[in-house]
Amino acid sequence: MNSITDALRQxxxxxxxxxxxxxxxxxxxxxIGETIDRMGIYRDSSVIRNNESTENLDIRSQQKxxxxxFGCSTI
Length: 75
Hints:
Blueprint: H1 2-9, H2 35-44, E1 46-48, E2 65-67
Parallel strand pairs: 1-2
């Protein structure tokens, strides 16, 4: 909600990217548990790092998923 408020206060165009994993991907395997358990895994696997360089955001090479505000520019 804060990101939306900040975007609306900025003059010009603002872009907010929301990434949401499919929590129903492996519903029958049982290894990860119920949907609420999978949500907890994503919460525990994420770390907030505002202003992180976009070069460091590749989730294939990270222990944690980096989330936050990564840059702001006026067009």
